[in-house]
Amino acid sequence: MTATPRSTSRPRRVWVIAAVSTAVALAVGLAFRPGPSTLPPEATGDTELAATVRELAGPDRKALLAVVVTPDGTRTATIGAQPDTRFEIGSVSKAFTGLLLADAIERGEVTPDTRLGELLELDDAPAADVTLEQLATHTSGLPRLPIDLSTILSSTWFALTTANPYGEDLDQLLEEARSASLDTPKGTYSNLGFELLGAALGSAAGTNYADLLEERITGPMGLDSTAPVSDAADLGDRDLLGETAGGRTAAAWTGAAIGPAGGIRSDTEDLARFAERLADGSAPGIEALAPQAAFGDREIGWAWITDRKAIDGEDLVWHNGATGGFASFVGVVPATGTTVVLVSATQESVDAAGVALLEQIGAAR
């Protein structure tokens, strides 16, 4: 579904994760929609930032958006699109879901030890005993994706056509969970787990994931254009279609179940507000960024990954994402009040570009 996070402090891993991102995208896919909107090739916003991002990310991108927040202010650039054009942010959606979990814990609705079976109808399935903490830290034992014939066929069909295999509704998601085993190695990145986490948080609040996200996270921050899309028919003129790494137009990522794991769209203006609230520590559920467990040679909070002393000797907290036609990265250096967001409408990793931009900012301090 989306890119597996990697240690951004180690350049040798950039190409490994780029390859993983591409492989995962090829295994999943997105929903068809008629051809892309006509968009201007020029950049809007900060021209110096646009030039820097073009250089770091490479020239062969359909469109790019960039946000830089430092104590000196906020800079944005949108290349090949308008500031209100909505991009898919892929697994950066998980970062939003992590904020929702932290917020629900603070409200006393759930605890890290709350079991899925307390919130979702999973009968006596093994997944019923999985805790919310395990889902948020990828330690549940759930697979990356459901292991069934439908998923295999959908993945194959995407490789041929870019058609959407992620149209599941909640009932289908629960059926997948009931049949899932927990024998995947702990620490395996699980999109299925985050789909279930979002559904569980909605259930705990007596609503659904999309409405809960708006009520508690995007609404309070003024992110009016940031939301999951459950049906391709709901996409509008502002919704951009991305391209695969091979240059094919990729269908849109939609579905009722995938929002918490990778189904959110957003635009430059909203992501700038989001970045500002991350930089100053005022985002709802900001405790999600705090490390809770080991994650390979890194640490993980509620979705958010921490690389110690990665940027000019300071910790980097981050998440990335990849869909069939988009790649995304958000990185926060809490000690310096700095946030960088990059989203590309071509499915080639922007992780290295995001890290390089953060390093440039650190070197200029």
TrEMBL record:
Its EC number is 3.5.2.6. It comes from Plantibacter flavus. PROSITE patterns: BETA_LACTAMASE_C. GO terms for biological process: antibiotic catabolic process; response to antibiotic. Pfam families: Beta-lactamase. Keywords: Antibiotic resistance, Hydrolase. GO terms for molecular function: beta-lactamase activity. This is Beta-lactamase. InterPro entries: AmpC-like, Beta-lactam-related, Beta-lactam/transpept-like, Beta-lactam_class-C_AS.
